[in-house]
Amino acid sequence: MAGEIVLVALIIIGLVGRSPIIATAACILLAVKLVHLERFLPSIERRGLELGLLFLTFSVLVPFASGRIHPKDIAAVLTTWPGWLALIGGAAATYINGKGLDLLRIDPQIIVGLVLGSIVGIVFLRGVPVGPLMAAGITALLYKLFKLIGG
């Protein structure tokens, strides 16, 4: 029963905080529980992140598949300093996301803080939710920084 209450609370928080992804995910998981399909929860937990990353990669690659980005566009980007900064930024982001994935594998309970922090960022800082993986990556970097400073 506690799981259902938490999911309903996350639905409400997602709606109030303008985070349809959190609200939708909580709704789907609540439906899974209410129709007694809990046996699928371990599979969702194990493969959900991979499927999410797959669909995220699909959305990023669509401009290439649809022909909106041409090889000459790629060459043009790589000859400008904003293009090089974007390349470095993309590489740094994927590295940070990898550290976040490691953190989530080691300590899956950290997702509670990530979700609550994302909601705070959406509601009070007018932020845009980019997902728990990037939030976990930033958390992993902050954790290393605090360990380095604090000993």
Shape: globular
Mean pLDDT: 87
Structural class call reads mainly alpha
Quick one: biggest sheet? none
Query: End-to-end distance, in Å?
Result: 41 Å
What is the total number of structural domains? 2
Count of DSSP helices?
A: 7
Helix content: over 70%
Low-confidence segments, given as residue ranges, are none
Relative strand content: under 5%
The total strand number stands at: 0
> Radius of gyration from the CA trace?
18 Å
Give, in order, the helices and strands.
HHHHHHH
Commentary on this structure:
With 151 residues, the protein is an all-alpha fold. It has 2 domains: 1-36; 70-151, no CATH class. It is built from 7 helices and no strands. It has helices spanning 2-16, 20-34, 41-65, 71-77, 81-106, 111-125, 132-150. The longest helix has 26 residues, at 81-106.
Structural topology:
Elements: H1 2-16, H2 20-34, H3 41-65, H4 71-77, H5 81-106, H6 111-125, H7 132-150
Helix pairs in contact: 1-2, 5-7, 6-7
